[in-house]
């Protein structure tokens, strides 16, 4: 199987090893998929014969290489080519310090590149023959320059000098400085060079030297662009005449060609990033620096390759954890030796003492022409893996980690904290996590991190009271105590490593505390700026002061640094510039005709929505708009509403709910069958509520509209939604009589997805511009549940601030025909799009551009991990809806639905279905099944995430037991036994309800109120019924029944013990699981006693009432079934807690042994002393 390729890889043709190329685009490299590549690339783009013309035309439009193909830029000719991967061979993979890598795309373990060791092949300067007969010294660009070609320049018959091989990149430096993307320092400011303008000094064949602007010259192959020392340049005689002559003077007989012998930067465009902490210089430097600034002592280019004294290149030190940058090489890069004389001695041999040729300055008017081109290179890297082991790897044996955006991925040395936030006393609207620590190692396969907590460390977050629920709160300050506490293994889903706090090797930071001159208050040196070169395990940072006059590494407290420039490019305007869309307007008919194939046109036509009546005959838009889209019997044509699933490449089915008897599927005509008719107890799918609009409706205060057009369309939308055949199962719509333009949708997550059985609430507003403009929607993204773990979005299209990214809503720029259409689009289509396109089985591919990754090997594991996180995040939604129904925003008006769906014995029992689903997932996860994030998860789930489901079951059990305890006479109609009296003249009205501490008789008082006994331990139900119902009961049965009521004092005791079990088990880990399981077992045993007592006591009464000659009827009440449910949930919770206890202990022992072996491979490092 061919190695997977990535952008910037160096490859060669398999049938021609000398033909080198750089990979520019791959099918999986979505960041490179800019459309219309022919308009953005200078070189012409061709394609291999193995690629069809239709595939090539599609690529030239969308910019996405077909699967198993790549776009390369050849180095020996000015062209780019789309060709199959099978035709090339990988030579080198460019990796930088700080990159996250894996050994293969399917590996769980990733690591950080901490050092690179690149060896280069260099091409020395050579003789170049000009057509005029003159000979120049220089380096020609890639191309065919052999004698006999009809070129202005050719190589001599002897060709190029022999290349120099195996030169470490650390011995080289750039030939020119500054260059674009360099980081520069000017006075108290740092910035990044975005563009430069140079003058070049050209040595002509007559030994004259003239300074000219570089834009007035051309390279030997006729192209324009920046020049470096050693380039051959051709210009015009007019340019020479007006140039600034350094040596000689203009001669019309001298050909206008020569060698660039020096480069002088005239202007540099700089984007200023930060200023020195404590600087009084409020005025930002000019965006364009000129020669006076560039050549002043205040200007400096930051050189990452500088190292502290004594830090030499030592191959035996490859396992050091301190990073040392080297020159970042690329093909055809122009370089110099740091020490040419030393290199000549080092690489000379007896047979070839002149391995590295040298051009003497005196032969070239004092200019240094000892420059070389990098013609090829090969890289080894050292990687620190998540388990702290360090290895040396060939770069081509590693792949970039495609899942670095995982919110729950951490690496050793990072700061992490527990999820739950609590208020800080005396600081309003400020919260802090319970514990803060440093990650020491990660078991990536089981998603477990080893953290050493640091007692006394603080991270403060501020919460805006007006901010939307679910939006991440910003960090305001942090301080590490550096006191080493206990180490603990903890799930990655139970911690967060804040990106604002953590850094990566290669990041440039400002130092807040540095030595300064007391007399001036200014630093004596550039000691306020440095690069992260190590992240020690105590939480501090090792910073290299690379701009100081004497380079040194210093240990700095993390809170004493501020990141100025991140090595991974985050926080920058990186990638495709959206402003370029204006330059490449795709609306042009000419452009479309040029690149569109017939295939594409057919696809566009299929995207248009169409409507049919019940006979399958097409309908025009006027008929649809004039209410003629109803069938003859009044039912709406389901095919009309569901015709187009926006944003989808093809029609998708709406997955079934767990309570559906048969999977929901589309019919032959593409329509979606309606849900079964709800039972009498089930809430209706559509309902108009009376009363005021709830305060938690996102659009409550938006203006209403009373225009006839708006009202007519609003009524039509409601008409569609209230039709029983329209809404799929699991969708509930609520609106308000006072505001029909406000709606609330409850969507139950489809089965076979990570969202199964979880509730999702969406508020809808039909603005005054509706239907010309799409409806406004808001997704209620409840905050992450601290007891179940996971943070972040629940779907790439569902934002934490409530935004829903969907082309149908106008919040995403989709393809033609996918946007909102006033005459065709409906709210029902919005619902169907959410169910069929957002709440899907593999939400990872909902991310923009990721649809091209479906089915690729590289996307399998990232997709599975994403689904795993969403699985837990969705369960957090479920817990929020059940435990915070009064406080969680978005649930007002939906309370009866939530109760029926999850709690009601006559409902679909989604809570029980969810528990069963989790149990099945855990069971499958213990085997060897392939990880998919849905049915098979990380082994650690069984030992941690399920712990919180056990905790949830204990909480539900305690609530059920509490309800049983406060049954009649506290809650009149909630009882263990109900008796409908048959000997009364008011048989229909008299019902005796027996509870834990007494009983009530309904309508017994003259005013129609209930007559209830006082609350006390023990009463006489058998004697009571013998009196009021006139049935006979033997003294033994009656006495036993009445005596057993005293045992019901155990009800509140069992309830209390169960609640204690819940509180104890909140402490996750071995201790919490063991203590919770023991307490739950005690409650479970007592529940058996209570349950046996209640069934015996009231079973006797029930039997005698139903067997006597009276017309009375006795039956068990809902309270006794609550007791049975609590008994079952208690038993299940107890088993779960015991199971997680065993798993945690086994995992901890296993990880401890693995960590011991891993640490044994790490070399000990000498202690360092910092400046501060």
Automatic annotation (TrEMBL):
* Membrane-spanning ranges: 945-966, 1053-1075, 1081-1102, 1114-1139
Keyword tags? Membrane, Transferase, Transmembrane, Transmembrane helix, Ubl conjugation pathway
Q: Does the keyword Ion transport apply?
A: no
InterPro entries of this UniProt entry?
A: SUR7/Rim9-like_fungi, UBC, UBE2O-like_tSH3-B, UBQ-conjugating_enzyme/RWD
Q: Where is this region: Disordered?
A: 277-296, 569-682
Matching CDD domains: UBCc_UBE2O
Q: What species does this protein belong to?
A: Zymoseptoria brevis
Q: Where is the composition biased (Basic and acidic residues)?
A: 643-653
Q: Where is the composition biased (Acidic residues)?
A: 575-642
Coiled-coil positions: none
Q: Which residues form the UBC core domain?
A: 709-879
Annotated protein name in UniProt: UBC core domain-containing protein
A Gene Ontology cellular-component term: plasma membrane
Task: Recall the GO molecular function terms of this protein's record.
Answer: ubiquitin conjugating enzyme activity
Skewed-composition ranges (Low complexity): 671-682
